Amino acid sequence: MYTSIVVGTDGSATATRAVQRAAAIAAGLGAHLHVVTAHRPAGAGVIAGAEGAFAGVHGGEWDAELRTGLVGMLEALVTELAAGGVKATGHVIDGHPVTALLEAAKSAHAELIVVGNKGMKGARRVLGSVPNDVAHKASCDVLIVSTT
Questions:
Q1: Using one digit for the tens of pLDDT, what is the confidence trace for 84-143?
Q2: pLDDT of residue 51
Q3: Facing residues of 77 across strands?
Q4: Residue 118 gets which letter from DSSP?
Q5: CATH superfamily placement of domain 4-145
Q6: Angle at alpha carbon of residue 112, lines to 130 and 23, rounded to 5°
Q7: How large is the angle between the packed helices 97-107 and 130-137, nearest 10 degrees?
Q8: What is the pLDDT of residue 60?
Q9: Please, is 64 exposed, middle or buried when counting C-beta atoms within 10 Å of its C-beta (0-12, 13-18, 19+)?
Q10: Regarding beta strands 4-8 and 112-116, do their DSSP bridges make them parallel or antiparallel, or are they unpaired?
């Protein structure tokens, strides 16, 4: 059913719940999981080629410490997923999280995007939230995981 799945994370506990759900689906279906985190640097981003199990997108002036932290978080997560039998690739993408998830899904030919439901209540829902925007803009299936 799904051969390529995208999931977003910012490293938070709620995002981790979405990653865990996406990993369970990927493992059960033998799908490739693309774990995406977004960063909003000052400059525009351009895509760089994949290097092993990690693909990076760079642009603007990155704060070296922040970049190292994002890359490290994803490398650790990809390693953990691989130890659990999940084929996974990490992606750091410059830009807004919604744009990052949609771009990753398009380039990975993903049939499913998994996001947590954080931000779907109160004022953030009215003003827009990542799960809400992804659900309305994605050209593939979207699973919104309850993270509360």
A1: 999 999 998 888 899 999 999 999 999 999 999 875 444 444 445 889 999 999 999 999
A2: 37
A3: none
A4: T
A5: HUPs (3.40.50.620)
A6: 90
A7: 40
A8: 45
A9: exposed
A10: parallel
